[in-house]
Design brief:
This protein has eight helices and 23 strands. The protein is an alpha+beta fold.
Length: 525
């Protein structure tokens, strides 16, 4: 088959097109497999990056692995040819009661990653899975299907996490997360960091800022090599979205942070998006097409919860407009920031979200969101209000459209889960950015980083301040947020570790809050 270029369709810039995606996902047929069915001798253990699952539905999920006997080499140490990978799913952890099996091709054009979409399983139950190449077997992973759409569901438990800078420390929070009793994990972005990193607890590879497709692949492989992250992926299905560092810090749509990179940024984004897809348990729905990748989507968990997964990077307008004098501000905003054409979601995604919230009959609506949503007055002077930046505060029109819908429909069951800022916050969401002390109409839980920022002087504060009376909690430990919800109540536990310099650091619950069904806003337990 040589380089296998004939299997794929490429655009003029070398990006895989829609036709190429279709061929990738229809390449596994009996006739095709017979060509590659000889036992593989890859020279070393190929499952060094572990196994993962994700995108749970009531009858299935996605299974993922990537063959990489030398994971920190640009090609993973793999031959430039397709390799058949056998997979099987069982009802038991010993893999004796097999209910599904099959073969997928690991293609060199996708770094020999495998994405198996499974259907036809039973809802609300655990399954175990394993991959095999030649005589080599992967670790056994565990995953779970979602409850049937609309079905009565007594309880769900999940955790959300974000921001794991390899250079800043270890990932003890993931080690502890793997020990939790959960149904799934949501990752809210900054899975990798693209920068050089400099001096730190651990070194980045490649050592320089990543730019090429091979660079992004090696960086993802470095992070995937972390054993604590391995463990968390192996025991729960994950639902993932990105923020900026998976591509470039603070980029907005096709606009890079550094204007000097404008000429090459479209190609760079395409490479970053392809590497992200290659390393995540995503469906073919999200297959990258050049510099575009469909990531916003909706998942249902019985009648209890509907999860609206957002992408606030790919479609956003450029950063905050030029500043203005205090006297020019309108309720804390420069006039240019109130331009209704400025968007953080893009018009299509915003309309999709509004329609989904309008139609939802779930007992809880959840926005899996990257950057802080609730207003935050950053001026220390109570007489002067300042909003702006790259959070939702910088895009007030989009936020107002969503808040107006929530208020108009009385969707007080709306909960926003957020990452990005490397701190824990609880914010009761007011109906607008003018009256921050108004009755809340939604609730936002912001989770701290897994490791980003490294160890620091700890600061924990309960309650609001003169600028932000809707603030209930602020803390800068590292860790994750555990959520347990029933029809009547949503509880969050802020789970924190004392240090990211200790690989096996213990976990504890720093604070817990609840939201009662039908009444927005969080109360401390």
């Amino acid at each position: 088959m040589g380089q296998n270029k004939d299997l794929f369709v490429f655009g003029r810039r070398g990006f895989l097109t829609g036709a190429g995606a279709a061929l990738l996902h229809t390449a596994v047929s009996a006739q095709t497999l017979s060509t590659f069915a000889s036992p593989e001798r890859l020279g070393a253990y190929p499952f060094t990056l572990g196994v993962a699952s994700g995108e749970p539905t009531s009858d299935g999920f996605v299974l993922w692995t990537r063959l990489a006997p030398q994971p920190l080499q640009p090609d993973g140490g793999m031959p430039r040819r397709p390799v058949p990978v056998r997979w099987r799913i069982a009802l038991d952890e010993n893999m004796r009661k097999v209910v599904r099996r099959g073969v997928a091709l690991a293609m060199p054009e996708l770094a020999h990653s495998v994405h198996v979409e499974v259907q036809g399983l039973q809802p609300s139950r655990w399954y175990w899975y394993q991959f095999e190449v030649g005589r080599e077997e992967s670790a056994i992973g565990r995953t779970r299907t979602a409850p049937r759409f609309g079905a009565h569901t007594r309880q769900l438990a999940f955790a959300f996490a974000s921001c794991q800078n390899y250079v800043n420390g270890y990932f003890p929070a993931y080690r502890r997360l793997a020990e939790e009793d959960l149904d799934f994990i949501v990752h809210l972005g900054d899975y990798i960091y693209e920068g050089a990193g400099g001096a730190g607890v651990r070194a980045h590879l490649p050592a320089a800022e990543i730019m090429s497709l091979e660079d992004y692949r090696v960086r993802h492989a470095l992070y995937k090599s972390d054993l604590a992250l391995h463990a968390a992926h192996a025991v729960f299905p994950w639902i993932v979205t990105w923020d900026d560092h998976e591509t470039e810090n603070n980029y907005a749509g096709l606009i890079p942070q550094d204007p000097a990179d404008s000429a090459i940024f479209e190609e760079r984004r395409a490479r970053a998006y392809q590497a992200y897809y290659e390393h995540m348990p995503l469906r073919r729905f999200s297959f990258p097409r050049g510099p575009d990748l469909q990531l916003y989507r909706r998942l249902s968990f019985g009648g209890l919860m509907q999860l609206h997964v957002l992408d606030t990077r790919q479609y956003r307008s450029a950063g905050a407009p030029a500043g203005c004098t205090p006297g020019e501000r309108i309720d804390g905003y420069c006039p240019s920031a109130l331009d209704t054409t400025r968007t953080i979601t893009g018009n299509r995604q915003r309309d999709w979200l509004i329609e989904g919230l309008s139609r939802s009959r779930a007992q809880w609506n959840v926005l899996a969101n990257q950057v802080p949503f609730a207003p935050n007055d950053t001026n220390a002077d109570p007489a002067i209000r300042t909003f702006g930046g790259e959070k939702w505060d910088g895009y007030p029109f989009d936020r107002a459209q969503i808040l107006d819908l929530i208020a108009g429909r009385k969707l007080y069951n709306t909960v926003i889960i957020t990452g990005d800022v490397h701190q824990n916050f609880v914010r009761n969401v007011p109906p607008d950015y003018v009256n921050l002390d108004a009755e809340p109409i939604a609730t936002e839980f912001i989770g701290t980083s897994i490791s980003s920022g490294g160890d620091r002087t700890i600061r924990t504060v309960f309650g609001g301040d003169a600028n932000n009376p809707h603030l209930r909690f602020q803390d800068n430990h590292h860790g994750y947020v555990r959520c347990t919800l029933s029809a009547r109540q949503w509880q969050v536990d802020y789970r924190v570790v004392p240090s990211v310099l200790v690989e096996d650091a213990p976990i504890s619950t720093l604070a817990s809050f609840v939201v009662e069904q039908g009444r927005a806003g969080a109360e401390k337990i």
